[in-house]
Write a structure and sequence with these properties.
Number of domains: 2
Number of strands: 14
CATH topology of the largest domain: Thrombin, subunit H
Distance between the termini: 35 Å
Radius of gyration: 18 Å
Strand content: 25-35%
Low-confidence stretches: 1-19, 27-44
Structural class: alpha+beta
Length: 289
């Protein structure tokens, strides 16, 4: 699991503030990221190729995502890659894209909306023969929202002539990030190496629900990630978009207490995702009703 830039929050912080997990505190300790990332495992580090994962949930009736293979296939298809930077997701047929702001930070200076150098790759994944599929290039047309403090970005990309109808993932209808909820991530680890950054799937559960955090609604999850997963979509089992992964915390002081397999535990290492329903409401003029 990649946890971005490593940091250890000071032991002097009040325990109540730690438990409330003010995401702004965590964010500013990680504010200046470098190109290097560090993988820190909190799970089995199991990655699956999309097609193999879909076959598996069809045959395993007890799997939490059983019965949702088609919806997840569409969600995985809508996951796109920005080489050497990270992952993003198409959220409308008109080319709206959500990702973490730091994924495009090197391309967006100040308040400029010029994003001509940002080109996402659709279908950056392995084919049946183990080679890379030919990607479909999705150039950015405009940066609609660049919220640096919340690490959230919303863009619009141009549909290529060969693909007039873009795939997209719908937003989560229930908008609940309750502890113990099973979620999945599609992402592109090893972003700096194009040949190794093909799309993979990982799964796990939400550990802590911070969706009511007044600074920044979020949730903590235990899904394995690595460098390149920044901006990756966090899906529900029914293939809807619940959050955007933006970083991990390798050592959070006295820890945070949440649910692990139905048991209350205190963890020091976990991943953080922003709670997308909050941003859908905040930027309703772009997302629509």
């Amino acid at each position: 699991m990649d946890l971005g830039e490593e940091a250890s929050l000071t032991e002097g912080a009040e325990h109540g503030k730690r438990q409330n997990m003010s995401i702004q505190v965590i964010f500013f300790f990680f504010l200046f990221w470098g190109s290097a990332t560090h993988a820190i495992e909190i799970g089995p580090t199991d990655y699956y190729l999309p097609e193999g994962y879909l076959r598996d949930i069809i045959t395993r009736q007890a799997h939490p995502a059983s019965g949702h293979a088609e919806a997840l296939k569409r969600a995985f298809k809508a996951t796109i890659f920005l080489p050497q930077r990270g992952t993003a997701a198409l959220v409308s047929a008109q080319g709206l894209v959500v990702t973490a702001a730091h994924v495009i930070a090197h391309k967006v200076i100040g308040e400029t909306k010029d994003c001509g150098k940002i080109v996402f790759h659709l279908n950056h994944q392995l084919d049946q023969d183990g080679g890379l599929e030919r990607p479909i290039l999705l150039p950015c047309e405009e940066v609609l929202v660049y919220n640096y403090n919340a690490d959230f970005a919303l863009l619009r990309v141009r549909s290529p002539a060969e693909l007039p109808q873009l795939p997209y993932v719908p937003m989560a209808k229930d908008g609940e990030s309750f502890e113990g909820r099973f979620v999945l991530i599609a992402g592109h680890p090893h972003a700096m190496d194009y040949a190794k950054s093909f799309k993979v799937i990982s799964e796990g559960r939400i550990f802590f629900n911070g969706s009511e955090d007044p600074d920044l609604p979020h949730f903590l999850h235990l899904v394995d990630t690595e460098g390149g997963h920044s901006g990756a979509p966090v899906f529900t089992v029914s293939g809807e978009l619940l959050g955007v992964h933006f970083r991990g915390v390798p050592d959070y002081g006295t820890g945070v207490t949440g649910s692990v397999d139905g048991v209350r535990q205190t963890l020091h290492r976990f991943n953080v995702a922003i709670f997308l329903p909050y941003f859908v409401k905040k930027y309703a003029e772009w997302f629509g009703p």
